[in-house]
Amino acid sequence: MLNVLARVRVNRVTDPIGRWLVGHGVAPDVVTVVGTVGSVAAALWFLPRGQLFVGTLVITLFVLFDLIDGAMARARGNGTPFGAVLDSTCDRVADGALFAGLTWWCLGVGDQRLLGVAALVCLVAGQLISYIKARAEGAGLSADGGLVERAERLIVALVGTGLHGLGVPYALPVALWLLAAASVWTVGQRILLVHRSAQASGPVSTTGPSGPTDSAPSP
């Protein structure tokens, strides 16, 4: 949803920055890696120690690097296949670190074990949402859309974490449980989208050494 509504406005801000960086010889892949390393380090340093508000600010700063590398790729005219894979991989690593850090806090100094379950659900479901889309596209199918994509997941998690760090009651529990439910719902949505796409495309068969099969092995 946010990808559709906010992309044009965000690009107006990030595209000039991307052009400036490209003009000074900075590679998009460097920005991708720096943003990921910063996000992971901040998530695993500040959050488990209970420094939720400061952690949110630092993580948000590095998450914004993901917008800049896309703007840089557009400024160069096109991205590269390696850059696309690197960007997607780094996104998964950064997202995993965020929810791992929150889980660590919940089970540690936060002493909120039940909330830790919600954080773990967000961690696993978020990875599944992205995997389903990637696996579907690799099979020539479509799984675009869903209730909460990456932008929504990051915004809800970071806003809830930051407000909790400022002392707003129930901010993080509400954010994580809401996000956990929405993420599980989105997993179901994407599986349904893949099913519909498969039905629309018709049966696909491959012929291996032992004869025809109706599916390829999973990676």
UniProtKB/TrEMBL annotation:
Reactions catalysed: a CDP-1,2-diacyl-sn-glycerol + 1D-myo-inositol 3-phosphate = a 1,2-diacyl-sn-glycero-3-phospho-(1D-myo-inositol-3-phosphate) + CMP + H(+); 1,2-di-(9Z-octadecenoyl)-sn-glycero-3-cytidine-5'-diphosphate + 1D-myo-inositol 3-phosphate = 1,2-di-(9Z-octadecenoyl)-sn-glycero-3-phospho-(1D-myo-inositol-3-phosphate) + CMP + H(+)
Record: active site: 91
Pfam families: CDP-OH_P_transf
Pathway where this protein functions: Lipid metabolism; Phospholipid metabolism; phosphatidylinositol phosphate biosynthesis
Class in the EC hierarchy, top level: transferase
InterPro entries: CDP-OH_P_trans, CDP-OH_PTrfase_TM_dom, CDP_ALCOHOL_P_TRANSF_CS, PIP_synthase_PgsA1
Residues that bind Mg(2+) 1: 66, 69, 87
Cofactor comment: Contains a di-nuclear catalytic Mg(2+) center.
NCBIfam families membership: PIPSynth
Protein name: Phosphatidylinositol phosphate synthase
Organism per entry: Pseudonocardia alaniniphila
